[in-house]
Amino acid sequence: MKKVSGIILIILIMLIAVACGIDKNKNVIDKNKNVIDKNVVSTDVSILKRDKHSLVEIADVIIRGTVTSQEVQTDYMGFPATDTFIQVTQVYKGKPEVQVEVRTIGGETNDTILSIDSHSIPSFKMGEDVIVFLTSQKGTRPDRDDFGYYVVGQAQGKFSINNNKSIESESNNEYGFKLNKINKQIKEIMKENEKNPPQRDYRLEDEPDFLTD
What is the pTM for the complete model shown? Predict the structure, then answer.
């Protein structure tokens, strides 16, 4: 696999969308039980696999917090993107504001539904207690000032807290983060990274961590 530039990524997403199909004039029932027409796009993305050392190294900010609200925007490519707002309750790395805004691709606008592979892209629920590894590196995309952060490694960098007892995510089976030890674990990884810096191969022009064959 090789990294793609922002321009190639735009083409990639558009080609995948076409390949997967855009169902125009598909009837969708809204919350008021009105039947409306929407473009429905379903697609998959490929994500660069991250180990815990690169996850910590890339992250400008690592926090624990509570999801307070979400807004769906139309990004500069014309696709829906979801901005999730998280009230910070604990900081493990960086100096974030008391609330952070995190963007993920996908969502539903007035005329379009963009559905992404849930195993690749992180999803958030209202009131959810989460730990997230965040990057403020948004490249040259023209809407980079419209939101705060991306999640490093996409779904790999988002962890749910279960009843204030344990950390849950598919990737944590490999990472081994423990809720009562994660602050210490992150500090230890940061020290290890200072001695042996991970290869910094992660910067793409627009969407971090997206790859194509």
Answer: 0.80
